[in-house]
Design a protein that fits this description.
alpha+beta, seven-stranded antiparallel sheet, 29 strands
Length: 628
């Protein structure tokens, strides 16, 4: 009997330890709030929503093309560099340097709103997104127009999914920029307004468009004013499917077409490289204690506007279902939202906000609306499927809160200029007289916070922890209306609340998502399971826990060359040693034909090892006081 009790206690202890140890998944690192276009902009103009409300909703059907080579004016107060004609990939455009504002003249025959499309090429720069502001007739039309971005295109130097070898560590592919002409609109990449292309109001006659300098050079071959097509709802698209007589694919000879997540076709950022994941033995491919780059995304894919695309080849034209095998265990209570593109187009309105709910394990998410799975039309041959990160259904709430942060920062600065950071407890600073719009700023912030809270409650159907920091700030602002003493005595708390709002925006905006694979399949297919049960998870964690004491997976080399081998010791830490291992494998060993045996060793071991002639060939991170 005692033996059974001991065994039972031992099993319970093991289970407890297994589920308390950190999982082998990336942890979400906290990032400080860097500000938004509302707080960073120095231009006092209204928001995009206010801009749309100012004018009559007229949308002319005419299209107007602008040849960038016939630019009207260029001003560069920093350098003498000028725009010039630039030919690349059999197309001619205008090279515009990073510094300098360039103006184009455009004549329209009818007053109204127009979308603006740019065909561009990203020349070599600092590898970041191209960033500009846009002015219409000499002024910014709305705050969001002070900064818009056009992405570069990246790809892996090789397809890592085709290089997996049993028992061997993968070599991580380098990220290389892809040369191509891209056509995109000036649009809401973050998702404040549903990711739509911005509408710009032009009067009949001659107008001027100015691209304001910010970051990175650009080559532009064409600018076009046009009307972006409205995206139909899924029900409308389904009706079109029937009218066109598209075939619904019930089954395929191979059951389904599987595309590995790490086998990305293109991506918007070099940080979106393949990621090694050991969180489940059902991740494909998987091998214990071997570094396989078998997924993509995770915490690196969390910035709104970043996108990844995959190329899939189907045997016949028709209507297919799409299933993504994903991991979303990063934000409890928050959806990770993505915008879906098929061959560069959003197939229907519901695809603008594809939601991936929180789960502690991998999950197969077949795209649908809860009542039926969506059908997507794919042409026979190669098709490109892309997902773009967006703030999704939280867009209105985040926009309101970011505007509140900008307003409260301005309020805080104005008050501190009068009172100092440590105001007198009972002194009357006559703030209302000295800050004319004091209570207007407070009332506006109260209204926006109440709107944001109501929006979040309607999404989650409860008043959860998600609205706590908003609620605290709202209570304080209502206290501010009671007395000016509440304002002066609450400055430190206000500063803390502004910081808390910034943290809230960062946490809810950055929605991480890891992708293991994509299934393209018919409606009658049973897919491989993604989740593990309790006992499978327990066994996997036990094996990983016990094996971790002997395995040194992160520092073993992924490559083997014919040259000599040197031993390198590093004492800076695990993260630095893993990065150094990757750099050695990607460049040093291959370029110089030298194998490197990397070891993470305590600094105290270096001197005794060297004196006993057992030291390394190279030691990195050695303190200056070590006499070696």
């Amino acid at each position: 009997m005692k033996k059974k009790i001991v065994i039972l206690i031992l099993v319970m202890l093991i289970v407890g330890v297994v589920f308390l140890i950190p999982k082998t998944v990336e942890s979400k690192t906290e990032k400080s709030y860097d500000g938004s276009v509302y707080s960073l902009s120095s231009v006092a103009v209204g928001s995009y929503g206010e801009y749309l409300a100012k004018y009559q909703a007229n949308y002319p059907k005419e299209e107007v093309e602008i040849n960038p080579l016939d630019y009207f004016n260029f001003e560069n107060s920093l350098y003498d560099e000028l725009p010039y004609e630039y030919e690349v990939l059999e197309k001619i455009g205008l090279y515009i340097p990073e510094t300098g504002d360039i103006t184009f003249e455009v004549k329209v025959n009818e007053t109204g709103f127009y979308n603006i499309q740019i065909e561009y090429y990203a020349p070599s720069g600092r590898s970041s997104d191209i960033s500009r502001g846009i002015m219409i007739n000499g002024s910014y039309p709305f705050t969001e127009a002070t900064n818009f971005k056009l992405s570069r295109t990246w790809k892996d130097s090789f397809d890592v999914s085709k290089t997996h070898e049993k028992g061997k560590h993968d070599l991580k592919p380098k990220q290389v920029e892809k040369e191509k002409w891209v056509t995109d609109t000036i649009r809401d990449r973050i998702g404040y307004y549903g990711g739509e292309s911005y509408k710009f109001y032009f009067e009949k006659g001659t107008n001027y468009i100015t691209l304001v300098q910010d970051k990175e050079p650009i080559v532009i071959s064409k600018i076009k004013l046009f009307q972006a097509k409205d995206v139909k709802t899924y029900n409308e698209v389904k009706t079109l499917y029937t009218q066109e007589g598209y075939k619904v694919i019930g089954n395929l000879d191979s059951n389904y077409i599987k595309v590995q997540g790490e086998s990305a076709f293109e991506k918007s950022s070099p940080i979106l490289a393949p990621v090694a994941n050991w969180s489940s033995y059902l991740v494909d491919p998987y091998e214990k204690f071997i570094t396989l780059y078998n997924t993509i995304g995770g915490t690196t894919w969390r910035v709104p506007g970043d996108w990844i695309s995959w190329e899939v080849e189907v045997p016949e034209s028709g209507l297919y279902e799409l299933t993504f095998k994903v991991l979303q265990n990063y934000s409890r209570g928050v959806y990770s939202t993505r915008r879906l593109y098929i061959n560069g187009e959003i197939p229907f309105a519901e695809a603008k906000t594809i939601q991936f709910a929180y789960s502690s394990d991998w999950q197969n998410v077949t795209l649908g609306n809860g009542e039926e799975n969506y059908l997507f039309y794919l042409e026979k041959g190669k098709n490109v499927i892309a997902l773009e990160a967006t703030i999704g259904i939280y867009g209105d709430a985040i926009r309101e809160v970011e505007q509140v942060i900008a307003t409260l920062n301005e309020l805080y600065r104005k008050v501190v200029m009068i009172t100092g950071v440590n105001p007198g407890k009972y002194q009357d600073y006559m703030l209302e007289k000295r800050i004319p719009n004091l209570y207007e700023m407070i009332d506006d912030s109260i209204a926006k916070l109440e709107n944001a809270i109501n929006e979040l409650v309607s999404i989650s159907s409860e008043r959860s922890q998600m609205v706590a920091s908003l609620q605290r700030t709202l209570i304080q602002l209502k206290d501010f209306k009671k007395s000016e003493l509440e304002i002066t005595n609450g400055l430190n708390e206000l500063d803390d609340n502004i910081a808390a709002l910034g943290t809230w925006v960062t946490n809810i905006s950055e929605q991480s998502l890891a992708v293991d694979c994509i299934y393209v399949h018919g409606s009658e297919v049973k897919l491989p399971k993604a989740k593990t049960n309790f006992f499978q998870k327990l066994w996997h964690e036990l094996v990983m826990l016990i094996g971790s004491y002997g395995a040194n997976t992160s520092l073993e080399s992924s490559v083997k060359v014919d040259g000599p081998t040197i031993e390198v010791w590093i004492s800076s830490g695990r993260d630095q040693s893993v990065l150094l291992r990757q750099l050695i494998d990607e460049s040093f060993s291959v370029d110089y034909n030298i194998n490197v045996e990397l070891k993470l060793v305590s600094q105290t071991a270096l001197l005794p090892a060297t004196l006993s002639k057992n030291g390394p060939d190279v030691a990195i991170g050695v303190a200056q006081n070590v006499p070696v």
